[in-house]
Design a protein that fits this description.
globular, 152 residues, 6 helices, mainly alpha, 38% helix
Amino acid sequence: MFKISNCQVSALFAAVLLLTACERVPPDHRAPVTLPLYTEGDVDNGAIIYQDACGQCHQLNAGLNKKGPQLMNIYGAPAADLEDFTYSQSLEQSGWVWDAKTLDPYIADAQKVMPDSKMLSNPMPAAKERADVIAYLSSLRAAPPIVEDSTK
């Protein structure tokens, strides 16, 4: 009968961990924004509203999803496009592109527009606040993250 000691199991486990750590999977990110800035809102006020209403669940950095997906380069991006976040089935199948036309009703009341939405925020009934948030989201633009090649 073959018997493995605790020391051998520990060594095998450590070897597996070391080998799998060599491959670094970069965080998913969206392509750069190609739409022009949304100018019907106030970007600075939108940033303040975003922090208060959205910042608890959304980050702005690739790979740093919270309850909701990160939102960098969201404006003009297809809905449900990050592979490192699990979206609701209806959002995945919506065919939406995040622009003022889709963001406005979604921010106003995500559950009303898409009943199985995973976004459980309070509705934002004020059109001016939504326009400001959309203006801010349209300003979030960053190049894809640089991932160093670990084979060099």
